[in-house]
Specification:
mainly alpha, single chain, about 110 residues, flat
Length: about 110
């Protein structure tokens, strides 16, 4: 387990040094210069996460349409657009890392 932990820390270090992560942190810093806008973005992200991860929600279509309008409005701000694009790139990288790890361990984990 010691070797695994050491390699996990090496992976974290590699992620923190990669350009995708650096771009995300830079865009986060830029967005946070406007606390009110940053708070709106965080509320939007939380609502979007809830919509995607809660089962059996009522009025899913209405909530999705509302989030779509909010996304369009928020993305009209260049700093929000850059932040959300950087976040998406980081999330995709993390998904690829997780997929590579789970594919490399023979546990018969079904894909969703």
């Amino acid at each position: 387990m010691e070797t695994v932990n050491r390699n996990i820390h090496a992976l974290l270090n590699s992620i923190q040094k990669c350009q995708i992560y650096k771009d995300f942190k830079k865009q986060e810093e830029i967005l946070n210069k406007n606390p009110e806008l940053a708070e709106r973005v965080q509320r939007f992200r939380a609502e979007n996460f809830r919509l995607q991860n809660e089962e059996g929600q009522k009025d899913v279509l209405a909530k999705a349409e509302q989030l779509s309008r909010e996304s369009e409005e928020l993305r009209s701000f260049p700093e929000v657009n850059a932040y959300l694009d950087a976040e998406l790139a980081l999330c995709r990288m993390m998904q690829k890392i997780c997929r590579t790890l789970t594919d490399g361990v023979e546990m018969n984990i079904p894909r969703i």
